[in-house]
Amino acid sequence: MRILAENADRAKILAGGQSLVPMQNLRLARPEMLVDINGIDSASFVMVDSDVLRIGALARHIQVEEARVPGPLGGLLEEVGRQVGHLPIRLRGTFCGSLAHADPAAEWCALLATAKGNVVARGLGGDRVIAADDFFDTAFTTSLALGEMVVEARLPVLSEDWRFGTAFLSRRAGDFAVVLVIALIRVVEEKVAEARIGLGGVSDRPVRARSAEAMLVGERLNRELLEHAGRAAADGVEPLGDLHGTAEFRRHLVKVLVPRALSNAWGLG
Amino acid sequence: MSRATVPVTLEVNGETWDLEVEPRWSLAEVVRSRCGLTGTHLGCEQGICGSCTVLVDGDPVRSCLIYAVQCRDSRITTIEGLAAGGDIADLMEAFSIHHGLQCGFCTPGFLVLASAVLERDPSISDGDLEEALSSNLCRCTGYYSIIKAVRSVRDQTSAC
Fold first, then answer.
1. pLDDT given for residue A64 in this prediction
2. Which of B48, B62, B119, B150 to mutate to test the interface with A (most CBs of A within 10 A)?
3. What pLDDT sits at residue A269?
4. Is B153 an 8 Å CB contact of chain A?
5. How many distinct structural domains can be found in chain A?
6. So what's the architecture of B6-78 in CATH?
7. Which residues contact residue A195 at a Cβ distance below 8 angstroms, ignoring those fewer than 6 apart?
8. A206 and A80: one domain?
9. Prediction ipTM score
10. Residues B70, A36: C-beta atoms closer than 8 Å
11. B62 touches chain A (CB under 8 A)
């Protein structure tokens, strides 16, 4: 921490290196100094601590995917984890590194936002807990201060009345999705008591489709309602276009993928 | 930029190498240019193509995305180590029989990856195998012959 703090304006943390090193090789990132944390074995934990899943700075993607967390969160992590890169990437890249990198289409960033997780940031002054909503500032930019690093991510363990569904569209297996949707609904007496819909790839950071979420509460889900929710979610985003998909195409994907993720969560088949 | 070198001891294919390396050198560069093990191919140098796949402590790793100085305490196995040890004789033969290569540039990376994938899960499903092999790029074969080759080895091994 001292080395990082003393060189805050020129040093980067090197964890899995599956985003930072390609960026260095492409000369998109040119840090003068790397602080390699790979030797810190005590940072590679993934553990449930009462109702919270705690993921250490050095926990690899595959550890999170295979963590067998009890309840719906375990299944969700497995399903989302399988979408992260390829096996060699998942063996090496880290969950917290992905959050700190803050790619707007990153699976774990969208998951943190949807599951209302937190990030524990450490600086020389001590630790602070940052909620997902306050962590992602814009593309590749977080609210970490100079000299701070992510030491842990926290996800609330989901009770059994939660259900999840995901929908992704990527150009090739293992690519970042053009658009991804993670839906979480809490179902009480066959009605939606709480809904969260997280979107990746449609903004400069992961976002929630709040207007669509509000439409679902108190309802039983059916095709018609899901289509309404998809349209509401699509109306609520202002995607940017790039080589992988125009703004219009991304908005269309939100309209199609939100119902698909919700349908998977509800079990419409 | 500092050009200073640092001493590093690497264990590559069971052999110990005492080297002076620049901290910025990737493992791929070091095994190729310092150890002379040129079977590890550098394709994209940005972690996309998988041609540079080696094993680090048994795990398939893109050696263009890891610095040699990070491998001080690790066991590194390159395609040369796997081939010389006879560990992948069946995979090599299957690639030959099923035309799993044409120009051969991606082949070492695919062989290292495939050996690690079968080691992790000898009875891996067709779907998971395709997903795992989609990690690497081949511009000649269209992949189907590579998938067939690895499947055939899986079927021989898991039948025993």
1. 97
2. B62
3. 58
4. no
5. 2
6. Roll (3.10)
7. A183, A184, A185, A186, A212, A213, A214, A216, A217
8. no
9. 0.90
10. yes
11. yes
